[in-house]
UniProtKB/TrEMBL annotation:
Full protein name: Winged helix-turn-helix transcriptional regulator
One Pfam family recorded for the sequence: HxlR
Keyword Ribonucleoprotein: no
Coiled-coil ranges per UniProt: none
Keyword entries, A-Z: DNA-binding, Transcription, Transcription regulation
PANTHER family for the chain: TRANSCRIPTIONAL REGULATOR, MARR FAMILY, TRANSCRIPTIONAL REGULATORY PROTEIN
Start and end residues of each HTH hxlR-type domain: 12-110
């Protein structure tokens, strides 16, 4: 999945991580899968990504251990959706920190609104990425809701394998 070079055998863990996570599509796909949007069509439509690019990213993400597949029924047919692995769930603090950073350090476009990261265990909005700023508990995907007012929705995240 490297953008420019193969860093998979580098001694530096940052370089090895970027070998897997350095493509922006990877984090956006993980975000959507954690939000329960793991069907190919959902990912394609939500991300505005071409089918060819999405297929390549999903294949490499499975090979990297970020995603697995699960069967579901639709129109009398068994299909597959993508679900997060523990490795993908471990990216939650990174994704949440990116959201927090974006709220603080980028200009909000017209029509935008504050995205709240709500820790469902205590019901409070957190301003930290790894532990709840209100109660101090570790933040797990299945305990988090991202409130996106510009979409008029609140998305409860999914546990790995869910």
């Amino acid at each position: 999945m490297a953008l420019r070079s193969d860093w998979s055998t580098e001694l530096c863990p940052v370089r090895r991580s970027l070998d897997v996570l350095g493509d922006p599509w990877v984090l956006l796909i993980v975000r959507d899968v954690l939000h329960g949007n793991g069907r190919f069509e959902q990912l394609r439509d939500n991300l505005g990504i071409s089918e060819a690019v999405l297929s390549r990213r999903l294949r490499t993400m499975r090979e990297a251990g970020l995603l697995t597949t699960a069967d579901y029924e639709r129109d009398g047919r068994t299909r597959q959706k993508y679900v997060a692995t523990e490795a993908a769930a471990d990216l939650l603090p990174l994704l949440q920190q990116l959201a927090i950073w974006g709220e603080r350090h980028t200009a909000e476009p017209e029509g935008g609104a504050h995205m709240a990261l709500v820790h469902e265990t205590c019901g409070a909005e957190t301003t930290r990425a790894e532990t709840c700023s209100a109660c101090g508990e570790p933040l797990r995907p299945e305990d988090m809701t991202w409130v996106k007012p510009w979409l008029g929705t609140a998305h409860r995240l999914r546990a790995p394998g869910d």
